[in-house]
Design brief:
Layout (H helix, E strand, L loop, with lengths): L1 E4 L7 H10 L8 E2 L8 E4 L9 E7 L18 E8 L7 E9 L13 E9 L4 H5 L4 E3 L10 H4 L3 E6 L12 E5 L4 E9 L10 E8 L6 E2 L1 E6 L3 E2 L12 H12 L1 H21 L9 E7 L7 E7 L6 E8 L12 E8 L7 E9 L4 E8 L18 E2 L10 E8 L4
Parallel strand pairs: 2-6, 10-13
Antiparallel strand pairs: 1-19, 3-4, 4-12, 5-8, 5-11, 6-10, 6-12, 7-9, 7-11, 14-23, 15-22, 16-21, 17-20, 17-23, 18-19, 18-21
Helix pairs in contact: 4-5
Length: 411
């Protein structure tokens, strides 16, 4: 993924739901390191916290001491989402200042084979830990971190760190961290892409924290911007799943009815925004876009990082700050991020100059795709042609930009 421009010159409950269902929007992006078997909790001087003594906590799967698990997808699917609860026993509020994900590499250093599509660390609020513990040591968790079927319950869980192939280190801007209250727990969500590998996995995650009271750090939050891909089968392709209705039925079979509900939700939200803007070309056979508004009743925010996430067919992703222009066509708009050669295996979040988004401002995210790649990519070329929408599977698609921000103007 090559960055051509990463600069800004100058929600609502739905936003919380988008963060959870999108699955990868986190204010701190993890770096990657070879598989580690460190102690569960050690006091170290971290590279993320060179001037402070920090606690590094290793979050592991329940089967870690037995060598890991062999992931198996549900019938008819090629992906598995698996969640594990972990209690870090926090007696005081902490700041997450960095994290290092340890993916199991089934290839070589030069030619890695990673079956982890993404990993997310969710915070479990103190008043929810008993409910989550009751779920057992691990559980399937497509869409959100728990089997919850209500948006209100899903919004209880906040993503505090994320990893995807290619994630780089040092994406946390200096002076910022993610606050975690005392008594909180963690949920580790691992998305296994079984099109890449079906080998045994024992991935883990090292989380670096420091006491919030003495950190002097400003809290960093996450705002996900999504758009709904709606990609028909290319000319010359055919089959039952090229029918959009049939494709959505298959999506529901693989990941549950909530996956289709989410497709419909973001389609309606983004279509409404496009109608208001007078945009008749917000979605095509190879592209999608969505205009998001910072509610007028909210505080200003200061943007510090921007990330990009699509799946295997993604070509470009652009984020534009449109100020008060709801059409996002005024010449005063600013390109905050433009990834012109997206690469799924090299995903990153980028530090950008601090940029203020005021209440009432609009931000637009646009993604483009090449559906013909489905028949060329080794992981998908043997799969049947299908109408592709937003979906949790690696052979489905997404359009997501994650913005890391602090509350207030110039903070």
């Amino acid at each position: 993924m090559r960055l051509k421009s990463a600069k800004f010159q100058v929600g609502s409950m739905l936003a919380g739901v988008v963060l959870l269902l999108a699955g990868v929007a986190s204010p701190i992006q993890a770096s990657a390191a070879p598989k580690s078997h460190a102690a569960e909790s050690t006091t170290t001087t971290s590279s993320f916290c060179s001037l402070k003594t920090c606690t590094t906590t290793l979050v592991k799967i329940p089967e870690a001491d037995k060598g890991g698990i062999t992931p198996k997808a549900p019938a008819g699917a090629t992906d598995l989402y698996r969640c594990t609860f972990f209690d870090p026993h926090l007696t005081a509020e902490q700041m997450v200042i960095g994290s290092t994900f340890h993916p199991q590499n089934h290839g070589t250093v030069k030619k890695p084979i990673l079956e982890i599509h993404h990993a997310i660390l969710f915070q479990v609020p103190p008043n929810q830990t008993s409910k989550v513990k009751a779920l057992g040591s691990s559980w399937p968790c497509f869409s959100g971190p728990t089997p919850a079927d209500s948006f209100a319950e899903l919004s209880n869980f906040r993503s505090i760190a994320g990893w995807a192939p290619g994630s780089a280190s040092a994406t946390r801007p200096t002076g910022y961290g993610v606050n975690v209250p005392a008594g909180s727990g963690f949920i580790l969500q691992l998305h296994y892409n079984l099109l890449a590998s079906k080998a045994k996995d024992n991935s883990s995650w090292s989380i670096d924290m420091t006491p919030a009271a003495e950190s002097g750090l400003t809290p960093l939050l996450g705002w996900p911007l999504v758009a709904p891909p709606d990609l028909p089968c290319p000319l010359g392709s055919g089959g039952t799943l090229c029918n959009r209705t049939n494709s959505l039925k298959d999506l529901s079979k693989r990941f549950g009815t909530s996956s289709v509900n989410f497709v419909n939700l973001i389609e309606n939200v983004c279509k409404s925004a496009a109608t208001t803007a007078g945009d008749n070309h917000w979605q095509s056979a190879t592209s999608t876009s969505c205009i998001w508004r910072r509610p007028a009743s909210f505080q200003p925010i200061t943007v510090h990082t921007i990330g990009a996430h699509m799946h295997l067919l993604g070509k470009t992703l652009k984020v534009e700050l449109c100020h008060s222009d709801k059409t996002c066509t005024d010449s005063s708009k600013v390109i905050g991020l433009f990834v012109q050669n997206y690469d799924f295996d090299n995903q990153q979040a980028y530090n950008v100059p601090p940029t203020v988004i005021n209440p009432g401002d609009y931000v637009k995210v646009t993604c483009t795709y090449d559906p013909k790649l489905r028949k060329l990519i080794p992981q998908t070329k043997k799969l049947p042609a299908r109408f592709i929408t937003w979906g949790d599977g690696s052979s489905d698609e997404m359009c997501l930009s994650s913005i890391g921000y602090s509350q207030g103007a110039g903070t």
